[in-house]
# Entry
Amino acid sequence: MLSDTPPPPDPLPDGPEGLPRVVPPLPRERSHARGLPPGAALDWLRAGWRDLWTNPAPSLIYGAVICALSWAIIAGMFRAELDHFLFPALAGFMVIAPVFANGLYAKSDRLARGRKTRFWQMVLLRPRSRYQGLFLGLVLLMLFTLWIRAAVLIYALFFGVQPFPGTEDLLPMLFLTPTGWTILLVGSAVGALFAAFAFAISVFSVPMLVSENVDALSAMGISMAMVWNNLPVMLAWGALVLAFFALSAVTGLIGLIVIFPLLGHATWHAYRAIRQVPDAQERVFLTPA
# Structure
């Protein structure tokens, strides 16, 4: 008797030794991948340079304030005899710096809308995510604190628990002795791990919190996804940020007056180049109250 039911599909041929054949997983959609070449990082830098010199006064004042705050913190460290934290603090500046660039992101956003920005509008910024930026700032501050403690532990492992010799004696010890070279190598490797994680969760989450109504956890997760799915260009961008910060350190932080706003504006263009999903089309983990 004939049946209308179609016959079952043929089973997949077995693999070696009678084991079932392994079927590769279906390809996943990479919604954050943009396929940008590493050279796109230079385009972001050029766009940031244009924003810097379009109505330059607010941006330069912003950079001067960051420079003055940095000098004040360093002077306070020496006055409190905490100068042994100087080098870890300089390295950790890259961890928390994105939080202080909110006003620069706002200026670039307003320029894209054809609106002029005054300095007070950059300082008294009201992010669309409201208080969520405070939570992100606390996360980055905790990372900064962990890095400081890790740096102290690395110093103790190599030099023992002994009083800090002073900055004038530390530099020859670090750069002219095998032990110093080793501690620089280990410290740079550990610091790179902290910096890479902080870069991944903050490079796009901070401008996202400025322009979108999103919670901090979602912003950090989306930022990591955007970095991971655009790794070549983000590695190039991270290298540029590191090189410019090193240039600022060489100039006694005076270079921050121009370099900090330049990188802030350029980061906004990096965010807009990769963050192409409209706010309402991407689900977030939490909805800000």
User: Anything to note?
Assistant: The two ends are 65 Å apart (CA to CA). Residues 132-159 form the longest helix (28 residues). The chain has a mean pLDDT of 83.
